[in-house]
Amino acid sequence: MKITIINGPNLNLLGKREPEIYGSESFEDYLGTLKVKYPSVSFEYYQSNVEGELVNKLHEAGFDSDGIILNAGAYTHTSVAIGDAVKGINTAVVEVHISNTFSRESIRHQSYISAHAKGVVLGFGLQSYELALQSFVLK
Ligand code: CA2
User: What is the pLDDT of residue 139?
Assistant: First the structure.
């Protein structure tokens, strides 16, 4: 099974800044633990700070992966283009967030992705990604 994890803007800073909200582990280190725990899964990881690059990656993974785990970062709350891309691809997308966006500012309560996602996992720290992964792996 091939799973593509796509992270949006500023998530390359994980583990370096704002540990009180986002924890102190880098995504690369966390992904290493997932790879050990789920050896049968082939992971692809992509991060970009650029909206159009995230759309391009969704188009690519949307036709060659078995599942997509997407944290579009702040674009979640602003990007009609990313929402349209999620709607337009074949592969199911699980939207994830590290923080509980509903306990934060009201701008973070809106998502252009959720309506087109298979499901949404948020508020569990980096474990949100593993819970999303299990929705694809555990049948
Ligand atoms: O909780 C999440 O996963 C978010 O998608 C993270 C986004 C935020 O805009 C969303 O509302 C919720 C921000 C990612 C920024 O990540 C940083 C990590 C470390 C230091 C600074 C930013």
Answer: 67
